[in-house]
Every structure is written in structure tokens, then in C-alpha cells.
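ugh ok so i messed up the first submission bc i forgot one of the chains. this is the corrected input, ALL of the components this time, i swear. 569 residues overall. if the numbers dont match what u have on ur side tell me asap before i send this to the collaborators (the ones from the other lab, u know who)
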Amino acid sequence: MVLVYSDNEKLMKELLAKARELADGLGKKVTAVVVGSGEAADELIRYGADRVIVAEGGPGAFKAEEYADILTGAIEETGSRIVLIGSTKSGKELASRLGGKLGAGCMIDCNRVFLDSGELTVERGVYSGNAVSVERFNSDIKIATVPGKAFDPLEKDDGRSGEVERKTYQIGEYASVVARVQEMVSQGVNVEDAEIIVSAGRGLKNREDLKMIEELAEAIKGYTLGCSRPIAADLKWLPEDNWIGLSGHKVKPKLYIACGISGQIQHIAGMRDSSIIVAINKDADAPIFKSADYGIVGDIYKVVPRLIEELKNQ
Amino acid sequence: MNIIVCAKQVVDVSEVKVDPSTNKPVLTGIPKKISDIDKNAVEEAIRIKEKAGSGKITTITVGPPDAKEKIKELLAMGVDEGVLIPAPEEFDYHVVSSLLAGAIEKIGEYDLILCGEASIDMFSGQMGPRIAGILNIPQITYALKIDASEDRVVAERNMGDNMVTTESTYPALVTVTKEINEPRLPSLMQILGAARKPIHDWSAEDVGKAGLSTMTRTLDVRGVPMERKNITFKEDLDEAVPKMVEMLAKDGVLN
Ligand SMILES: Cc1cc2nc3c(=O)[nH]c(=O)nc-3n(C[C@H](O)[C@@H](O)[C@H](O)COP(=O)(O)OP(=O)(O)OC[C@H]3O[C@@H](n4cnc5c(N)ncnc54)[C@H](O)[C@@H]3O)c2cc1C
Ligand SMILES: Cc1cc2nc3c(=O)[nH]c(=O)nc-3n(C[C@H](O)[C@H](O)[C@H](O)COP(=O)(O)OP(=O)(O)OC[C@H]3O[C@@H](n4cnc5c(N)ncnc54)[C@H](O)[C@@H]3O)c2cc1C
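and heres the new structure output, hopefully the right one now
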């Protein structure tokens, strides 16, 4: 049995496609687990699940402690040996806790998951994008988390059938309480699909100056804004959607322009697959220049307006 | 307030290069350090202890003997005691988390366990929640802010799409983000004073976890080299900008 769980519907469908492939290769079945009302349960059958378990959740918002108990129940009942979980922040903490609880091998952020001579094999980036490690499992239960867009979902097949069951698993009592959940404002920006990204870093003096960066992005068609971690996480000038790097989004546009970004390895990890990288930084020794195709040493407040002008003349 | 911080020694990833002849990352001769976010965890532990007015901070590291030098930096910052457990010849998340959990149980009296959100070299963020799973205690991940009072901890967490506030009584395990604080630089006096603080050598047997075996194995580590043109313009903007735009147009990336 291959078990699949994600709190993100889109990711769940991507995982189902991979789970289907693994299960078919091993002659096993795919179980998807959803927690709560289970409105979309039938839909998951159409995207590749043989069985959907709609598990009763805890009393409040998501808690990894409770979800790890739910998944433990589902794994035991279905005899699942491969567990695929979506690599959202909550998915990762859930998978890791489950690994600890079950003493199982767990691999986080696997970009590739495949069978090699019938053995589950995964690949993940290490050393901040400088290397890929290829891993296998020694444990009976094998857990892997997978980020978005690693796999394409299957085409929806309205003819597929399967069972949907409601279950209640035993959930432990934990002293933690989720007191508040505040949704972050999302502008629905999708940096992963962007062809051209103009990114801002701490070289920006004020939030208002983002306008200048936006203008540059507009001057080149394919308008998408990116940023370094401090702009999103410390200053909160831009939402999480725009955060690029090891702990943010991984992007691969044909053109990436870094404005006032020093080019620390954790930022590079998120944009190293770009076709062409341009850097604008006033410090000639900034590491970003080593990772750039074209670099201009200069003040962004002078270079960016000049660049906008030049692009408009094109 | 007794706090345990798990701190890992890592290779400085910004120095890691890929050898083009073997296509492997070169790891020998690379400087080592305490993983960045683990220093944030230590800083937070010190602030919590200072606010509480009493208590003890212990760091635990699973790693090679040379990690002792780096643990001293944490003692200088304000940690009371260090623990070093040698990594077995073969180790993985299961082995390391089991050793850390064993050491935590051996210490016994603790309110909070702090870990980094993830290490800078492997960056999996697995260890904290894994330990919490082994110990069967609450886990609070990705904390941007911690308020630890006498009987409970409240944390604001960056969960990506959501900001979540979670609270718990003790014991609890919290993983912290880089944004939570700015780790202090110890003074010369503190560095000298750290020499008197103990670093305990504990074995796997000492923490009740002898004979662990790995649950994952690495088949291969392949370098991912990055080739760039590295053309840098330092001259007058009126020359540099048009030149670069022309090159970009030639590369076909402007439309
Ligand atoms: C190619 C490759 C190379 C590896 N090299 C190493 C290596 O050089 N060193 C190594 O330890 N493991 C190594 N491992 C093993 C494996 O990554 C884990 O066992 C590792 O110790 C912790 O995983 P992580 O770095 O992803 O930690 P994460 O789960 O990202 O760490 C989160 C937090 O857990 C705590 N923590 C994690 N590890 C330790 C530790 N050892 N001691 C104390 N606290 C810790 C810290 O608070 C840290 O911030 C390697 C694995 C692979 C695939
Ligand atoms: C585990 C971990 C994960 C991380 N994940 C990420 C991640 O996902 N993404 C990420 O971005 N970072 C990440 N970081 C942080 C990363 O290490 C850097 O701290 C961060 O990328 C720096 O952002 P920055 O370049 O905007 O700021 P800084 O490093 O402060 O650089 C600002 C740059 O702007 C230049 N500058 C200043 N003024 C001007 C001007 N007027 N004109 C031109 N240039 C100017 C300066 O010369 C400098 O180079 C992570 C760190 C850790 C430890």
C-alpha cells in the first residue's frame, strides 16, 4: 500500500500521480487520507486513489501531534509501507514527527521519487543546492515529503471507482493549543512559473522603493517580483509568495535580475536554475557576481532607472 | 527554567565547491561552524533564562571530536554545559534523533527543548519534530517569537500561508527561525570564562542507545555545478547599461 497525505489539494493530486506509478510498479494499492469533512474525497479517486480514508480530526486547527497519530492509525490499518506527504511547512513537521514516532526512515523535500530494481529511491538537494543526494530506505515504513510541481497530476478520470470510508483513529492528548491562525495576504503570485523575475534585496532602503523594482519588471514583459528572505521574513515588505531561496520558492525563469541582493548561498539555492542571471550591487566583492552572467557594479537607485529607460527604448 | 538546545556542527556551505573532474562536492578542508540557526536557538535560550532569573542551559551535539571547539563558542555566549556524543560510523536522522532524545532523557529535568528550523548543510528540518515524536511531547515549529513564562510557552510561528500562535505547558520542543533574534557575540571575558565550563563526553551507551542502525542510506552524492558567464561591468552606467541590454537581447531573454 502507498499512503498519500497533503493539506494542499493541488499537491495531493500531484502526489497521487506518483503514488499511482509506485503502486502499479509494486502491484499495490493507493490510499489517500483526508482529515475533516472530506468533501473532495470522490475527486481523489478520479485522480488515482483506490481508496480514500476520511479521518476525523482533532477539535481545533492543524496540530502535527494529532495528525501524526491519525496517519499512524491509517498506516497500521492499511498496512502501508510507502508514505508520501506534501512538503508544505506543516507537511514537513508532520512527516518528521511520524518518522520519529515510528522509528522510520524519512526524507524531506524529495524532488525525485522512483523505483529502482523495485526499491524506493529518492533524490534531494543538499549543501544549499550544490549537490543532490540519492537515498534509499532500510526501514519497513518509508516516508518521503515532496514539494509542489515535482510531478504532474494525472488527467482526471471520471470512470475510475474506489471506496471512500470514514474512520476515527485514536488521537493522543497533547498540551499544545493553537490559539490563533492568521491567514497571510496572498496576491496569488506564482514565482515558480514566471519567465522573468526581478528580485529585490536589502539593498532597498524603503518599502516604497519596491515601486522602482516593479517598474523594472514592467519594462520587461513577464512581470513577476521576487525577493530575498529578509524582505519577506524580517521586513515583511512582500508576502511569502515572493520569497526565493533555500527556505522559500525555487525558481527557474529565463531571466533573473537580482537588485541589491548579496548572493548568499541560501538565496542562490532558489534561483540557480535560471537561464540568465543579472546582478546589480554596489559592492564589487558581493558574492552575487560569482553567480551571475551579467553584473553591474553600482547603486540600484541609479542603475535601475537607467535600465528601465534603456529597456523602454528597445 | 531548564533549557536544552540541540546544536549541530556543519560545514560552511558557502565554501563548498563541486570538483568538475569527479562531479562531487569537495568537503575536506572546508571550515566548520555551528549551524547558523542553532545560534539563534542558543540566543533565545539565554534570553529566556535571563528573563526567568534562574535555570540551566545545556547544549547537545552529535558530531566529531573537533566539534568541541565550536561548542565552546556556545558556552561563551552563555550556555552552562555542553554535551558531545560521537556520531557512529553510519548515521542518519533516525540514529542522530535517537541519540539526541536519549541524551535529553538522561538530562531528565527540562522545560524547553530548542532546535533550529533546519540545519544549513542538509536543511531538512527533520530533527526537531522527530525528537518530539520520540519523546511524545508537544512540538512548536518555525517560531518567530517566543514568550516563555513560568508555566507556559507561547510562540508565533511562520507557517508560510499562515501565521499561527501556539501555546503549550512544559515540556515542549520549539524550533526557531533565523528571524527570532540576533545572536550575541561573546566578550573576551566570556570567551575566557567558557574554558571553565564543562563539555561532557557521552557515548551511545551512556544515553541508553547502543547499537542503533540507520533507516536510510546514501547511495550517491552528485555535485550540481553552476556555469555562469561572469561578465561584470564596472564602468560608466551610460556605457554599461546599453551594452548589457544588447547582450540580454542577443541571449533572447527579453521577450
Ligand atoms: C550527503 C550527506 C551528508 C551528511 N553529512 C552529515 C554531516 O556532515 N553531519 C551530520 O551531522 N549529519 C550528516 N548527514 C546525516 C543527516 O543529514 C542527519 O543525520 C543530520 O545529522 C541532521 O540532519 P539535518 O542536517 O538535515 O538536520 P535538520 O533536521 O535540518 O536540523 C534541525 C535542527 O536539529 C538539530 N540537529 C540536527 N542535527 C544535529 C546534530 N547532529 N547534533 C545536534 N543537533 C542537531 C539542530 O537544532 C538543527 O538546527 C549527512 C547526510 C547526507 C545525505
Ligand atoms: C538556513 C537558512 C536559510 C535561508 N534561506 C534563505 C532563502 O530562502 N532566501 C534568501 O534570500 N535568504 C535565505 N537565508 C538568508 C541568507 O543567508 C542571507 O542572509 C539573505 O539572502 C540576505 O539577503 P539580502 O541579500 O537581501 O541582504 P544582504 O545580505 O544584507 O545584502 C544586501 C546587499 O545589497 C547591497 N546594497 C546595499 N545598498 C545598495 C544600493 N544602494 N545599491 C546596490 N546595492 C546595494 C549590499 O552591497 C549587499 O550586497 C537563509 C539563511 C539560513 C541560515
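quick check: The two ends of chain A are 58 Å apart (CA to CA). that seems consistent at least. Chain A touches chain B through 93 residues (CB under 8 Å).
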